[in-house]
Amino acid sequence: MITFCTLFSGSSGNAVYFATDRGALLVDCGMSGRQVLDALCAAGLDPAGLKALLITHEHSDHVKGVGVLSRRLGLPVYATEGTWEGMDGAVGELAPERRIVIRAGESFFLNDLEIAPFSIPHDAADPVGYRIFARDHSVAVATDLGYFSQEVRDAVTGADLVLLESNHDPDLLRHNPHYPQRLKTRILGKKGHLSNQSGAEAAVCLAESGTRHLLLGHLSSENNTPDLAYRTTHAALTDAGARVGCDVTLHVAARYRASYLYTMA
Length: 265
Known about the structure:
The chain is an alpha/beta fold. The protein has helices at 33-42, 60-63, 66-73, 81-91, 150-156, 170-174, 181-188, 196-209, 226-239; strands spanning 2-8, 15-20, 23-27, 50-54, 77-80, 99-102, 108-110, 113-119, 128-134, 137-142, 161-165, 213-217, 249-252, 259-264.
């Protein structure tokens, strides 16, 4: 049995839960250790079952609670060398055996899981997404994408479930009076974040490749709304001939709580 859900998703913090009968892991830990533990308990998920932390990149909304959770639960942390260099100060002191270096394109194994990290186009030192294989199923985490690159497409094609970025509406972003132009340019750039429309186009590609569950995540709090993200992707899927709810499910990850606990036998 596979269990999957987001605990937090958005620019405020990110954490993704994945489990089989042999244990669980988190992809990212971007809220405080206490907030992540509370979110697990609120969702009825046992923190004692966690076996590892997988980190996508060093930005604070992905690593804020890594050090605390690793030390408290004795968890190994998996990250690329560039990510380790970037997050060292935020994570703090960890025992050497807890600091595990991985490389994009090189799979590794955790109990019964094959973990396949893949490079993502984002403005970080050496960022990755993850595809996790368990028996006959796989899920993928593909957020913080400047664009849906061929490398990302190849890495996630055919996954049963994909957490896919739908970060912003470009018009809302361009007209946001609180964002300086340099920040707007960064978000809209090739190493920034995926817009609703770009995410919707990626969703169509994934649905056509056999993905049956799409979870939209990492929404901007100022430049997007859950309804807008959902409607944009829903319309693209429908226009492509997919029946949402039958051929493919579509949900939006909540910002501050666990949402949509998926299970696959």
